[in-house]
């Protein structure tokens, strides 16, 4: 029986024949899912079975097909409980996204697209998940991008019930309501069982009351009834609120001995049990033998190719020049460049929208001017950084330039895992960290972000730019906005000098150190604004100064040159164990570059609270002390 | 007028005289706070003024005094909105914890204890905060420790209203209700203004409904009335639920032009405005001049000395030996040792309680045996990792051994900032990361924790142990439980060999590499269980093998020895850019140790999904490939 075409709800209600076809399909999909986990000897069958009708219905009604799933103006589907991958893949195979035999054979097999938790390489998967709590934020990000692009689509987010306790979900709920994202539809697989037992034994959580308290329309639905799911999904969003469907389900539904048993949350059944369940579902258990046989040869299907979103269509305008001593703070130069580019492109036909996220810090992170120029593309999200980190990620793969400006400790320390998942998902969002290093002096040690290099160095994709002065900040901002990939820019709070080397016709080039001074007695490699301190030290010690603004892409030509010219000091307003100096030294060792004596200067304990100058002095990062390092 | 003694609520209600004394004190405290921020030219007066009666009352009624504040069996006070430090310090000076003139002069001055956000060095401050959302979790951790120690005390948590949107608060609320922490009392400074404007414009949040939905007793109180605050605090917890006081207040209350103005959330007034406000509060503005004068000389008061909690009083029993091939997984060895030590000490007179936290993963992280032995000290907290990371931190400074076992990506990636704040606070908690590295193969790239060394290397205090085999795991577990400080242990999932080098009389020594094999053609330094792979490679290449289990404390003697003996390969199931190899190479460069050619092997891209062996092979981490590295 062929599956009916249900995209965008062509029917008032499902017909009997349609329900019958869907049920037949769900029955087969359960066999698919169970065969996957049994052949792979690992996986999560319980939730795959309980969510099956939800998966089948959502992928049926969504404007998301094998043909349009890699484009942008369409519906999005986020499955937050990514461990139910077997169920998701099974439903996708029913709807023609992927091949059933291939996924049954190569689920969780090295080299296949079918990872243990869902990933974007599989067509129909819009976001790689499994770290619970992030899915609704992912959906909100997609919905915001749809709105910015003028596309009236829907975003479906499927979740488990156990993960409803994650705080980030509440943050996403509030943003969805504030932004009026009525096209955002959440579905909760409410089976009351989680990995280690019954939900109410593990951590009680008043699911319905919490969604309602945050302003959502909460509707209870039989999560195994296609009729009920179809009707509820069709009606979603018609009350002027985002809607959540509380789908009452049974863990392991139609899975024989697995039904209602927590143990099968994360474990395949034994082979005899497998046989019984599959027979109960009306299929020949030989399907497993076939899958096991096929698994002996390597997977042929690698999934679709996922890359960063393409370069946006925007104009980046003409850089501003800043001249003189203490002329501007880097955060200010960023804010001005952002507003300038924003204005140039705002609501212009054919341009990629630029969306800026804020967490109650616009006056400090300097996004106020952008808000004024581009009010509809400025998203005030309150003190909810986890939510924003994820939203910023998904928005960026849905047709907008997505930028979040935030204090360093909140934009990376607090949300490291969200930014890691943005990296894995090749999101291409832009994060601007302000108030980094000891330059947020008075706020004290809990607010000094001294680890942004070290944190992003753990990822494989993030680029990081730490500008030296306002001129370079301006140019790097414009470069960042039009460049694909996840890019972080880290800027300080204090007013600093505008350097002529980065003004006028200077163009920012990622990975290139800029030699600011040539001296006789050695070299300083200085990160970002500390190059300005290094220049003063260099006057005393008569050494060269290389200004580094891309600590994760060390300029090895510059280092080789310096290595021949005497001792080297690295200088950074960052943890000295994990920053620019550490990256350079590691790369030199790998390349077999013999380094002279190297002294690494930076933050070697938690900072004091005082003016930036005071705090740096306490840390030994004054021109005098830096110059002294060459005497040793 | 002397302040009344109010500890533990000696009065039915406050008398008129008592209220009058408190009001007089609050008036003076406002002058104190305003003088602080004006002398420091930075700080947050608005919230300091709106929370003033809350601070004064809580520090009045709490069983927390200058005399007992560094002990453990007492009440605890957590101020989550740590940016209101000026108000907190002012109240503490009224209650005799600190000297008024000193704090007015040296607030946010380098070298003083009075950081911009509150820190534990100031007597009366139980937790350094300011990163919003963590305070209630901190309080829950203290309350759990009190309970484990049989102390029927109270924990007061003060919060702002803007930060109510942080998801972690909801997690803490649920834990408090599930654990029946009726001694936990929350107070919200509900002034409806936050940094960049009105609360309802920034992010609406139905505060009362959310606390009630999570099962708290929510009581509205006039936050500027001592009478109302005293009565409400006294009644808290008497309905069998934790209680939150929704304290209606006015931002900048009694601060003249600052009243109700968002701009003064984070900015001191100009000097004329200062004068007017202070005169309005009945004091001579000359107090500012005096403070400014005193500020010219360095601060004399450094605060109390804060260190890690002392070594617990526990017995650690006799280590278990594991012999043979694939005899045990390290997580299993950890679980057995933990349960053994738990049983030895459970409810024994005079012993320090051992409390274990779980986030719905006991069957995977192997804390089930401990739960069986020590049911009352096992805290099931559901999928709420941010909350648990903070609770585990505060519990550890309140008289218990506090241990949290968790999957790597959730125990450190997801909660990096909470663990960073545990470090800043010198918490001394123990985190056991299971399923680290590619050893969680099938779960795929979102679940492979390949950055735990790199993340903890950003902190200054965390120790990290990555055991080589089940024998070392057992011994390191017992060592960890009795050793002061924040300690992380990272273990894999697969069964591995028990090595004789770590059995019998072997004692774990932090920072010492163990030479497992001597060869002719060079050396492998291998992290944790990869030493077992290295041994196979070493047979092929005839090289030495050093097993490293403390990547953050490189054994430089071993490295010097190896440096003389030929090429070096570093091997780790970790991001190759930020792991053990990077730490060793940096330290060698600093010490001027000339290294031979070094090849760093490890994880250099996100992993595949498959068996651990498959995934390691795809990453090039097989004995053959490792041996080949010596040919180059």
Describe the protein's architecture and organization.
2 copies of one chain form a homodimer. The first copy, chain A, has 632 residues and is of the alpha/beta class. The first copy, chain A, has 25 helices and 20 strands. The radius of gyration of chain A is 27 Å and the shape is elongated. The mean pLDDT of chain A is 97. Chains A and B meet through α7, α9, α14, α17 and α18 of A and α7, α9, α14, α17 and α18 of B.
Give a quick summary of the entry.
Helix content of chain A is 38%, strand content 16%. With 632 residues, chain A is of the alpha/beta class.
Of all protein chain pairs, which has the greatest interface, and how many residues does each chain bring to it?
A-B, 113 and 113 residues
Major sheet: arrangement of strands of chain A? 10-9-11-12-14-13
Q: Could you give the distance between the termini of chain A?
A: 82 Å
Structural class estimated from helices and strands of chain A: alpha/beta
- Low-confidence blocks of residues of chain A: none
Arithmetic mean pLDDT of chain A: 97
How many helical elements of chain A?
A: 25
Rg from alpha-carbon coordinates of chain A: 27 Å
- Tell me how many strands of chain A there are: 20
The percent of residues in helical segments of chain A reads 25-40%
Question: Given the C-alpha coordinates, what overall shape of chain A results?
Answer: elongated
What is the subunit arrangement here?
homodimer
Task: Classify the beta-strand content of chain A into a percent band.
Answer: 15-25%
Largest sheet of chain A: 6 strands, parallel
């Amino acid at each position: 029986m062929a599956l009916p075409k249900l995209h965008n709800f062509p029917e008032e209600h499902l017909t009997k024949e349609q329900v019958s076809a869907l049920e037949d399909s769900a029955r087969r999909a359960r066999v698919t899912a169970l065969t996957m986990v049994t052949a792979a000897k690992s996986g999560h069958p319980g939730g795959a079975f309980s969510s099956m009708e939800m998966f089948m219905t959502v992928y049926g009604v969504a404007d998301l097909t094998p043909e349009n799933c890699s484009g942008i103006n369409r519906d999005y589907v986020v499955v937050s409980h990514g461990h139910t991958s077997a169920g998701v893949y099974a439903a996708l195979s029913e709807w023609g996204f992927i091949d059933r035999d291939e996924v049954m054979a190569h689920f969780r097999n090295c080299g296949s697209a079918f990872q243990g938790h869902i990933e974007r390489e599989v067509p129909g998967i819009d976001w790689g998940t499994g770290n619970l709590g992030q899915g609704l934020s992912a959906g909100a990000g997609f919905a915001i991008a749809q709105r910015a692009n003028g596309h009236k689509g829907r975003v479906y987010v499927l979740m488990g019930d156990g993960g409803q306790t994650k705080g980030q979900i509440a943050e996403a709920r509030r943003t969805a309501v504030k932004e009026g994202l009525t096209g955002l539809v959440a579905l909760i697989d409410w089976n009351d069982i989680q990995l280690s037992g019954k939900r109410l034994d593990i951590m009680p959580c008043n699911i319905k009351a919490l969604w309602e308290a945050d302003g959502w329309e909460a509707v209870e639905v039989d999560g195994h009834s296609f009729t009920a799911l179809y009707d509820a999904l069709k009606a979603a969003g018609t009350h002027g609120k985002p809607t959540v469907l509380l789908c009452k389900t049974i863990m392991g539904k139609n899975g024989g001995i697995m039904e209602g048993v927590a143990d099968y949350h994360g474990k395949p059944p034994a082979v005899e049990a497998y046989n019984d369940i599959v027979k109960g579902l009306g299929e020949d258990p030989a399907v497993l033998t076939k899958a096991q046989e096929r698994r002996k040869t390597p997977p042929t299907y690698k999934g679709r190719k996922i890359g960063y979103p393409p370069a946006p269509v925007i104009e980046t305008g003409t850089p501003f020049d800043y001249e003189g001593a203490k002329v501007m703070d880097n955060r200010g130069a960023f804010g001005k460049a952002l507003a300038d580019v924003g204005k140039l492109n705002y609501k212009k036909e054919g341009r990629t929208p630029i969306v800026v996220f804020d967490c109650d810090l616009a006056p400090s992170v300097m996004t106020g001017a952008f808000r004024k120029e581009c009010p509809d593309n400025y998203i005030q999200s309150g003190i909810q950084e986890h939510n924003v980190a994820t939203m910023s990620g998904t928005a960026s793969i849905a047709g907008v330039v997505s930028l979040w400006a935030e204090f360093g400790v909140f934009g990376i320390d607090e949300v490291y895992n969200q930014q890691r998942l943005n990296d894995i998902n090749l999101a291409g969002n832009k994060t601007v960290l302000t108030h980094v290093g000891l330059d947020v002096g008075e706020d004290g040690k809990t607010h000094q972000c001294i680890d942004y290099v070290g944190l992003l160095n753990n990822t494989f994709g993030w680029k990081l730019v730490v500008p030296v002065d306002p001129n370079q900040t301006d140019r790097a901002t414009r470069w960042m906005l039009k460049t694909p990939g996840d890019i972080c820019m880290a800027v300080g709070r204090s007013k600093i000098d505008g350097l002529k080397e980065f003004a006028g016709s200077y163009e920012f080039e990622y990975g290139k150190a800029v030699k600011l001074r040539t001296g006789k007695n050695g070299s300083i490699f200085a990160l970002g604004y500390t190059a300005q301190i290094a220049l003063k030290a260099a006057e005393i010690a008569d050494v060269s100064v290389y200004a580094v603004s891309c600590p994760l892409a060390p300029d090895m030509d510059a280092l080789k040159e310096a290595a021949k010219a005497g001792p080297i000091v690295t200088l950074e307003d960052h943890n000295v164990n994990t920053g620019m100096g550490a990256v350079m030294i590691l790369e030199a060792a790998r390349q077999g570059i013999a380094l002279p004596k190297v002294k690494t200067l930076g933050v070697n304990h938690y900072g004091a609270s005082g003016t930036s100058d005071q705090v740096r002095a306490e840390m030994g990062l004054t021109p005098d002390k830096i110059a002294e390092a060459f005497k040793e």
